[in-house]
Amino acid sequence: MRTPDIPKRLPDIVIVTGTPGTGKTTIAKKLARKHNLDYIDVNDIVKEHKLSEGYDRKRKTRIVDEKKLAKILESIIKQARKERRRLIIDSHMSHCIDPKLVDLCIVTRTSLRKLANRLKRKGYHKAKIEENLECEIMDIILEEAKHAGHKVKVVET
Ligand SMILES: Nc1ncnc2c1ncn2[C@@H]1O[C@H](COP(=O)(O)OP(=O)(O)O)[C@@H](O)[C@H]1O
Ligand SMILES: [Mg+2]
Does ligand 1 lie within 6 Å of residue 20's CB atom? Predict the structure, then answer.
């Protein structure tokens, strides 16, 4: 994986966002090991805090309250800063965090062909694959992250 835009020394609070299947978990875990950051899997937090508000059966996906999630992640970041712990937060929703609390936002991107293959391999439902491809084509997450005011670095995977 080429990561030319990732600084040699990562700041204290890093988030990794991007369309599902673009390689967030892979790069977040790798950077956590390399840079000695605590890896935070937002799926665990959603389960732990019961933030899942139901299940969209047509899209076969959980519905999460992003505002509640952002509040919890923001309190986790504040606590980590107090304890001088450094974090890397992995989620396609991580850019909902207040950008003032985040030092760097990594957005993973990949080609549509690779993304379609990866999601097929993961056993994603057809409608969900199409939805994620559309999300990637339109650069929805990248635009959301920039619009929110995050300091964005794009990594092609
Ligand atoms: N840089 C990469 N090169 C090749 N395959 C990758 C790369 N990053 C991720 N993958 C593969 O793509 C799939 C999805 O990656 P993952 O990290 O789970 O994405 P996400 O967390 O964004 O859903 C996995 O099968 C992973 O092995
Ligand atoms: Mg993941």
Answer: yes
